[in-house]
Amino acid sequence: MARKDGFYLEWHGLDELIEELEGMEREFEKNIQQGMKKYSTLAEEGTRALAPRDSGDLESSMTLKIPYIEGSKIVGGIGSNLAYALRRHEEPYRYGIHDKYDNGVKFPNYYVYGKGRRTLQKPSWRGEKPGRKYLERAIVATEKDFVKIMADALEQTLRGRRY
Asked: What's the rounded Cα separation, in Å, for the pair 93 and 81?
C-alpha cells in the first residue's frame, strides 16, 4: 500500500509460516538421514571393492554403522573389527617382488610392489585399483555422489512443501 512518505507492508500469517518451517526442519532431518544411509551404503561398496584381498577376511569384515540422528548431527560409519585393517589401510607399499608364506607353504613371487596376486586380480572401482588407503579412496571417489544425494534430500524437502 502506498502512502505519502513511502510504502507500508503488512505480513499476515507469520505464525503459520513459523509452523511450516518447523515442519520443514523435521522433514529435512528425515530426508538427510535417508540420504546419509544411501551414501553410506555406496561408500561401503567402494570400501569393499578397494580393500586388498588375500584371504578375503578384510573385505568380509567391513561393517556399516547405519547413520542415525544424535542431537544436532548425523552419526554413522564404516570400518572393520580386524586388528590389521588399519595397518592394511595406512602401511606404505613394500617395494619389489616377494614370496608369501602361509601355513608352511611358500608362494614364490606372490607380492608385487605390496599387492598380492588376488588383490591384483580384483577389478578397479570407479577408476581406482584395490590396495592401500581403500576407505579414504572410496570416500574421495564418491564425493560428487555425496553432494548430489544431499542436494536431492534438500530438493525433496522443498518439493514436499507448498507455498
From this structure: 22
How far, in Å, CA of 157 to CA of 109, rounded? 56
What is the tens place of the pLDDT at every residue in 14-43? 888 777 777 788 888 899 999 999 999 999
Give the C-alpha separation, 70 to 15, whole Å. 28
C-alpha cell at 139: 570416500
| Residue 161, pLDDT above cutoff 70 | no
pTM of the complete model = 0.81
SS (H, E, C) 9-70: CCCCCHHHHHHHHHHHHHHHHHHHHHHHHHHHHHHHHHHHHHCCCCCCHHHHHCEEEEEEEE
Q: What pLDDT was estimated at residue 3?
A: 54
Burial class (CB in 10 A: 0-12, 13-18, 19+), 126: middle
Rounded distance between C-alpha atoms, residue 147 and residue 154, angstroms: 11
